[in-house]
Write a structure and sequence with these properties.
By secondary structure, the protein is of the alpha/beta class. It is built from ten helices and ten strands.
Length: 274
C-alpha cells in the first residue's frame, strides 16, 4: 500500500506546491477508512523528504461542546445532542484555526484544538498539542470534509430507522443539510485539493466503526461514560448514513484523488483527476 499508493500520493502533493505557497488539503472518508493514518503518513513523508512543515487537523476535534449541543437539542432538534453531523461542529473555531495556521510566522507556535471522544466534550486546552510556523501545508481530515449538500427533494424520504422514527418531519436533516450548504461549503471551497478514501460500500462501515470503538475502549479511563456498545454503534452510524452514502456516489467524480479500499481496508487502486 505504501509503495503503490501512499508514496505516489506524497509525491503528487509535493509537486502541487509553488515556492512560498501555503496549501490546504482535505481528506474525506467514512469511519474506519484510515484518514488519520494517511494524514500522518503524508506529514511524515513531506517533512522528512521535502523539509516541509505540516499540521494535521481533524474536523472531529472541532465538535461543539456537550453543553452547546445540549442547547441545540433543546432549541432546534433533539438529535443535535449527538456529535457528528454538520451543524454540530464549531465552524468559527475551525475557520479561525485554519486562518491562524496559514498566517504563522517563523518560530510562532499555535495550539491545535482537541476533542475527547471518550468524555464527549472538548479536551482541556492545556492538553492541546502545538505546531511551530511557518507551515507549508495544513491537512484537514474528516468524514464530511468536502461533502456536498443535497437538493431539498432528496431529503423527503428517510434513509433509515433513525430518520423515519426520530425525524419524521425532516427538521433535523434539513438543518444538517442547510449547514452543509452554507458555512461548511464556504470552508471546503478553500481546499486546494481533496483526497477521498472510498470504502467498498456502506455495509463495511459498521464493522470498521466497531473496530475503532474497541481501540477507544482500550485507551479510555475507567470513568469514560461515552464508550459505545455494539448496538449503540449500529444506531450511531445512522446519523452519518445519508451523507456517507451520498459521498460514495458523488465524491469519486469530484475529488482530486480517489483511493479505493477493499473489505480489509487495503488500498487497491488510486485515481487522479489530473
Amino acid at each position: 500500500m505504501i509503495e503503490e499508493h501512499y508514496l505516489p500520493l506524497t509525491l503528487w502533493v509535493a509537486e502541487r506546491r509553488s515556492p512560498g505557497e501555503k496549501l490546504l488539503f482535505g481528506i474525506n472518508g467514512a469511519q474506519g477508512t484510515g484518514k488519520s493514518t494517511l494524514a500522518d503518513f503524508l506529514k511524515l513523508g513531506l517533512e522528512s523528504g521535502c523539509q516541509w512543515r505540516v499540521a494535521v487537523l481533524s474536523i472531529d476535534d472541532f465538535y461543539l461542546t456537550k453543553a452547546e449541543r445540549h442547547e441545540l437539542s433543546e432549541t432546534i432538534h433533539p438529535l443535535l445532542a449527538t456529535r457528528g453531523v454538520p451543524g454540530t461542529h464549531d465552524m468559527k473555531l475551525l475557520s479561525q484555526s485554519l486562518d491562524d495556521l496559514r498566517a504563522l510566522g517563523e518560530g510562532e507556535r499555535y495550539r491545535l484544538p482537541r476533542f475527547d471522544k471518550a468524555q464527549d466534550d472538548r479536551a482541556d486546552e492545556q492538553t492541546w498539542p502545538s505546531v511551530t510556523g511557518p507551515l507549508d501545508l495544513v491537512i484537514l481530515e474528516g468524514w464530511c470534509v468536502g461533502s456536498i449538500a443535497q437538493d431539498d427533494s432528496e431529503l423527503a424520504e428517510p434513509v433509515n430507522a433513525l430518520e423515519r422514527d426520530e425525524d419524521p418531519a425532516g427538521e433535523w436533516r434539513r438543518y444538517v443539510n442547510d449547514h452543509l450548504a452554507s458555512d461548511y461549503a464556504d470552508l471546503f471551497a478553500q481546499l486546494d485539493a481533496l483526497v477521498f478514501l472510498m470504502a467498498p460500500g456502506f455495509e463495511a462501515i459498521f464493522r470498521w466503526r466497531l473496530e475503532q470503538e474497541q481501540k477507544l475502549v482500550a485507551a479510555a479511563p475507567e470513568d469514560a461514560s461515552s464508550i459505545m456498545s455494539e448496538q449503540r454503534i449500529e444506531e450511531f452510524i445512522q446519523f452519518y448514513e445519508r451523507i456517507t452514502r451520498d459521498n460514495l456516489e458523488r465524491l469519486p467524480g469530484i475529488a482530486d484523488v480517489v483511493l479505493e479500499l477493499d473489505e480489509s481496508h487495503d488500498c487497491v487502486a488510486s485515481r487522479y483527476r489530473d
